[in-house]
Amino acid sequence: VQLVESGGGSMQPGESLRLSCIASGFPFSAYYMSWVRQAPGKERELVAAITKAGDTVYPDSVKGRFTISRDNARSTLFLQLNSLKTEDTAVYYCVRGAMINWGQGTQVTVSS
Questions:
Q1: Over the stretch 22-34, which tens digit does the pLDDT of each residue have?
Q2: In this predicted structure, what is the pLDDT of residue 99?
Q3: Please, what's the largest Cα pairwise distance for the chain?
Q4: Read out DSSP for 11-74?
Q5: pLDDT band for position 59 (50/70/90)?
Q6: Phi, psi of 25 (to 5 degrees)
Q7: Shortest CA distance to 103 belongs to which of 37, 17, 31?
């Protein structure tokens, strides 16, 4: 199983970014997928999840700003981050199922 994230970077508040996660080694369309972030000194936080059917879940901290989506034909998971805030700074991980597998993470830094 491999989960390879990309798309992170250094941004200014208010800007947008799209993260991608290419999955391999398992039937991507059969799994619930999510994005989890971890900031220095803080606990891991689920920021978005999507079911096999495409239903989505977000915590209040990102609701209305972040959008998770999936392309099952390309085994790819996406996270669109809009209206970025400094508190969104973290390493973002792509996760399969109930925390079964994790990618290596991609850093998102938001600062003015």
A1: 999 999 999 999 9
A2: 86
A3: 41
A4: E-TT--EEEEEEEESS-GGGS-EEEEEE-TTS--EEEEEE-TT--EE--TTTTTTEEEEEEGGG
A5: very high
A6: 90, 5
A7: 37
